């Protein structure tokens, strides 16, 4: 049995597993798939990826998700319990990094849309390190993940669990040259804030009342 079985999963997901009768199925997944560190295959997979999705939350639990991209290996596997990647100057908001200073829990999601159509979840605890400090502690870090730019800092992540995301609903995508933008496309900063306000949805106004709790067989409510 994988030692992660008893420690995997939140209280909420285990409660729902019991209510919906999937506890044995989930236990089998924890035993076979959830790893407390990266396997060699996981490390090789990360080294090939050119993008990832990053989830963070602040101290109050308000969530944020973002996207990071770079050449293969822009996320560096330092060992089976540690990964790191550089952060560069962007829009100045620093939402993900700011969350990490309040709450170190992060989730990384890598997905291969082109060859193997498989995904990898990596959850862990992150901290921020200055570029010079990280390079001093970790010699051999890549220097060309963004040619001509120097990292503002690095995100240093201690892996707590890693597991597969199955291929069932992963679409097939092929890399292609970016087409020329259409002439009437708004600039990035104006794309979602065009004048005119929100148009009324076709289905009418959203009622203020919250949906009632879900009731499961046996009377349990969530």
TrEMBL record:
Coiled-coil zones: none
Region (Disordered): 202-222
InterPro entries: Pyridox_Oxase_N, Split_barrel_FMN-bd
Superkingdom, natural source: Bacteria
Pfam families in the record: PNPOx_N
Annotated Pro residues bias: 204-215
Domain Pyridoxamine 5'-phosphate oxidase N-terminal: start-end pairs: 38-166
UniProt cross-references to PANTHER family, sorted A to Z: FAD-BINDING, PUTATIVE (AFU_ORTHOLOGUE AFUA_6G07600)-RELATED
Protein name: Pyridoxamine 5'-phosphate oxidase N-terminal domain-containing protein
The organism of origin for this protein: Streptomyces wuyuanensis
């Amino acid at each position: 049995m994988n030692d992660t079985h008893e420690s995997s999963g939140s209280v909420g997901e285990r409660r729902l597993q019991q209510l919906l009768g999937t506890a044995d199925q989930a236990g089998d997944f924890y035993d076979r798939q959830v790893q407390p560190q990266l396997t060699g295959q996981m490390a090789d997979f990360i080294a090939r990826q050119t993008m990832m999705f990053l989830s963070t939350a602040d101290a109050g639990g308000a969530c944020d998700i973002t996207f990071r991209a770079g050449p293969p290996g822009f996320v560096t596997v330092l060992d089976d319990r540690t990964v790191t990647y550089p952060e560069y100057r962007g829009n100045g908001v620093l939402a993900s990094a700011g969350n990490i200073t309040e709450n170190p829990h992060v989730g990384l999601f890598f997905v291969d849309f082109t060859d193997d159509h498989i995904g990898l979840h990596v959850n862990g605890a992150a901290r921020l390190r200055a570029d010079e400090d990280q390079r001093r502690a970790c010699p051999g870090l890549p220097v060309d993940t963004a040619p001509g730019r120097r990292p503002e800092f690095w995100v240093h992540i201690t892996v707590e669990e890693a597991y597969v995301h199955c291929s069932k609903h992963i679409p097939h995508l092929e890399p292609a040259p970016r087409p020329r933008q259409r002439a009437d496309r708004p600039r990035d900063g104006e794309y979602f804030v065009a004048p005119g306000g929100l148009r009324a949805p076709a289905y009418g106004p959203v009622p203020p009342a919250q949906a009632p709790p879900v009731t499961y067989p046996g009377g349990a409510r969530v």
